[in-house]
Specification:
The chain is of the alpha+beta class and 149 residues long. The chain contains four helices and eight strands, in the order ββααβββαβαββ.
Length: 149
C-alpha cells in the first residue's frame, strides 16, 4: 500500500479518510492557525506541508470537517505525526483518541518502525498509544515523543 492510496474508517457516523481532495482547506487553515504550533506559519506554507503528507481528515456525520491530523513519512521506516486537531464542538467524544489510533495503525504505514511527534500539552493522549518522552523540553517547553515498534 502506498501513501497515495485512499483509506477510510467509520465509527458512530464519523469518518476518517485520507483522500486529500475532501479536505476543507479553509476550515483546516483556520483550525491550525489558532494553535500554538502553527500560528506563525503562513497559510501557503502550512497547506503545502499538508499536501506533501499523508493526511487524515475527520468528518462529522453531516460531512463537516471535524478534525485533522497528518503524517510526514517515508512510508517505510519513519513518520512524524503532526497537526492533530479536533474542532472544539466535537471534543469530548473520544475523537482525538480515535484519530491518533487510526493514524498509528494505518496499514499504509505498517512497516514504519518509529513515529515521532512534539507536544507541550497532550502527553497523556499519546502515552495511551505507547509513545514515550525522549530528551528534555525544548526552548518552547515542548517535549519530543516517540513510538518504536
Amino acid at each position: 500500500m502506498s501513501s497515495s492510496e485512499i483509506s477510510s474508517w467509520s465509527r458512530h457516523g464519523f469518518e476518517i479518510n485520507t483522500d486529500q481532495s475532501r479536505l476543507d482547506k479553509e476550515s483546516i487553515l483556520k483550525m491550525l492557525g489558532a494553535t500554538y504550533w502553527a500560528r506563525d506559519v503562513s497559510p501557503e506554507h502550512l497547506w503545502t506541508s499538508i499536501e506533501n503528507s499523508r493526511s487524515y481528515g475527520l468528518y462529522s456525520p453531516d460531512g463537516e470537517q471535524a478534525g485533522f491530523g497528518r503524517m510526514v513519512t517515508d512510508i517505510t521506516r519513519f513518520a512524524w505525526m503532526s497537526d492533530v486537531y479536533i474542532l472544539p464542538v466535537h471534543r469530548g467524544n473520544a475523537l482525538g483518541k480515535w484519530l491518533v489510533e487510526t493514524m498509528v495503525s494505518d496499514p499504509a504505514l505498517s512497516s514504519v518502525t518509529r513515529i515521532m511527534l512534539s507536544t507541550n500539552d497532550a502527553h497523556s493522549l499519546y502515552h495511551r498509544f505507547g509513545f514515550t518522552v525522549i530528551g528534555g523540553d525544548d526552548e518552547e517547553g515542548r517535549q519530543t515523543m516517540q513510538l518504536k515498534r
